[in-house]
């Protein structure tokens, strides 16, 4: 897909200008079999743009491409989903129901975890940005959300994956490389990048 190639070219050009392209650990592209197996395992049809992006680079080994977080590979998406399925989902959803919320209200189901949330990135604390295939009444299937261990309020980031990647490019343009990681001073230390606030 032309859009995926253009997106990666822009991301890599930005990283090269910041002298950290190599440090991002971008991986070779995923095979068609890996993508088919992933969709079968998750039980969803992934967005064409995401599959095209993964065909070019199957995630990264470092952190940084997606708002300072690690972009997951096909195997990483699968193992992260499996990890969330290994916990007592029903019990935890009941236990934490009182503290769960959505921003904006009605966009994301206020649950601790949901098998129809597909993580595409991760931080070091078990939090993710990912696809939501089971939105609440005012959300849309395939929207991008924040969820995870520390994210009591599930946040709608974008209506689908295309504007999400455009935001990622804008974040990278404003980010600084300190020799170890990419950070964006506009974020002010908050978990949610300022570009989404």
The poorly predicted ranges are none
**Beta content:** 15-25%
Count of DSSP-assigned helices = 6
Overall geometry comes to: globular
Strand order of the largest sheet: 2-7-6-5-3
CATH architecture: 3-Layer(aba) Sandwich
CATH class: Alpha Beta
Task: Describe the 3D structure.
It is a single chain. This protein is an alpha+beta fold and 197 residues long. The protein has one domain: SMI1/KNR4-like (3-Layer(aba) Sandwich). It contains six helices and nine strands; from the N terminus they run αααβααββββββαββ. The chain has helices at residues 2-17, 32-42, 48-56, 74-85, 89-95, 161-174; strands spanning 70-71, 101-103, 117-119, 121-122, 127-132, 143-148, 153-158, 176-177, 182-183. α2 runs parallel beside α4. The longest helix has 16 residues, at 2-17. The mean pLDDT is 94.
Key terms:
alpha+beta, 9 strands, 197 residues, 6 helices, two-stranded antiparallel ribbon, five-stranded mixed β-sheet, SMI1/KNR4-like
